[in-house]
Amino acid sequence: MYAAQLPALHQPIEWRECRDLQPEKGEILVKVSHAALNHRDLYIQEGLYAGITLPCTLGSDGVGVVVNESGAYQQGERVLICPSVAWGSSEKAQGKQFRVLGMPDPGTMATHIVRPEAEVFPCPKHLTDEEAAALPLAGLTAYRALFTQGRLTRDDRVLITGIGGGVATMGLLLATAVGAEVWVTSGSQEKIDKAIALGGKGGASYKTDDWGKTLKKASGGFDVLLDGAGGPGYNQLMHVANPGGRIISYGGTAGSIPKLSPQKLFWKQLHLIGSTMGSPRDFAALLALVNKHEIRPLVDRVFPVSEINAAFDYFRSGQQQGKVVVSIG
Fold this sequence. Notes:
By secondary structure, the protein is of the alpha/beta class. The protein is 28% helix and 26% strand.
């Protein structure tokens, strides 16, 4: 077998020959057709992730076919890999052994991967391999944040910040699928326009100082707010949130939150909620929703594995709207 491995920090990815994998009892060997990139892969390459062990096979998203018959799965059946490893026994939060697939565990950017049967799921039949590869990590993160943690209903008005990223775009697709009204922010008008074409109601540029006032006036305020940035803009989220609103944070790319107002927090009775990835139960619920509404993840561009470093460079540039996928071939 072959795998896309990071040999050392700040180095290009290498397509290497590795030893063949042999599944043990209760494990499934999957021949991977497509994988997708996440910011986690970039952070590992740049040394910005905790507990890095090298060399490692990157990739948290993957789709492929079963090689060995095991339990409920037959040889040749198309499956998705759940990116959560060892979530734990509680649905409230991940356990101490939890980790994300793709370092230290060998990831999906390889011709084959072995995973426990409990972390392998039937692939929605309406999805292409490229779309399926775009779903797992972003879809799982968005689903848990919006539905498990945010208790989203069709009657909620939703704000999603930083549209264009994988989680934000999946959040838009999931929320609009159940009938919620969705607004977005971005630094790119092109990405806002694309979000509206995908079903969003409207949006504003977070590069303007008064984007919160603009959105509140246009929308009337928000019941559920999905944010992956944090930073100074978080205070504007508290301003545009309706009384009793739920602000769900799944990332912190803009850093710490300065001057958070406890007065606004308690007077508006806001709920500030953290969310990370999701459990296998969340993943199963995500797939059920995707199947019910025939949701299709947005794929920005597909690279052959021979151009994997070009894929990383493109992803790093931030030009994409939706997922960057690698065809393993």
